[in-house]
Amino acid sequence: MPVLEISNVSKHFGAIHALNDVSFSLEPGEVIGLMGDNGAGKSTLVKIIAGNFRPTHGSLKMDGRELVMHKPVEARQHGIEIVHQHLALCDNLTAAANVFLGRELRKGVGPFRVLDYGAMYKRAGELFKELKSETRPRDLVKQMSGGQRQAVAIARTRLSDAKIVLMDEPTAAISVRQVAEVLNLIRHLRDQGIAVVLISHRMPDVFTVCDRVVVLRRGRKVADRPIALSSPEEVTGLITGAIEQVA
């Protein structure tokens, strides 16, 4: 059973039709590349999945059950996590403090409860080891590389029992070595049975790590193809409109 089914989803902002009848499904442990030019509707679709927007028409199902959300916290409760392009990290805090930001562990009784730094350092270390990242819990984020920052943001999604992770341009503006590190992090999520939606403009990344590619143009889905049956040239043609649509 697909972990997520999107059926004929449309989103209208007055006269602006940001999405029109978009449908696709996502299997557990599958990585889908979501591609399209600026204004194609990628961000709108991701915000619907993440609970920021409700669709004007259409429906979402998770594990076969209809999914209705009014705010992002409800998406998290259903096991949907998002790693934003700008990561939303606090540079002056440690990796562990960022992982637990807003979900800090405490110890003690009643009004005498205090932050349990030891437990947070230990759990953050376990998450980084699980992701096979060299990031250390006590390191300050401001001293980290782009790849290490991504590891912190991804580790934060592992605090809950995530079933889907949405990643918005995770390899933008980082070095080649750091790109390889981020792609490995995505593979580790996939190997644990977590479905990933990778929003990216980088064709090599999508064809390296994704199982399928979904292409949007002007709010409509113009392709949903296994990576093995597509090519960077075909996807470029679909994005630009040189190729109208493929089954």
UniProtKB/TrEMBL annotation:
GO terms for molecular function: ATP binding; ATP hydrolysis activity. SUPFAM superfamilies: P-loop containing nucleoside triphosphate hydrolases (SSF52540). Residues 4-243 form the ABC transporter domain. Keywords: ATP-binding, Nucleotide-binding, Sugar transport, Transport. CDD domains: ABC_Carb_Monos_I. Pfam families: ABC_tran. SMART domains: AAA. PANTHER family: CARBOHYDRATE TRANSPORT ATP-BINDING PROTEIN MG119-RELATED, SUGAR ABC TRANSPORTER ATP-BINDING PROTEIN. This is Simple sugar transport system ATP-binding protein. It comes from Kaistia soli DSM 19436.
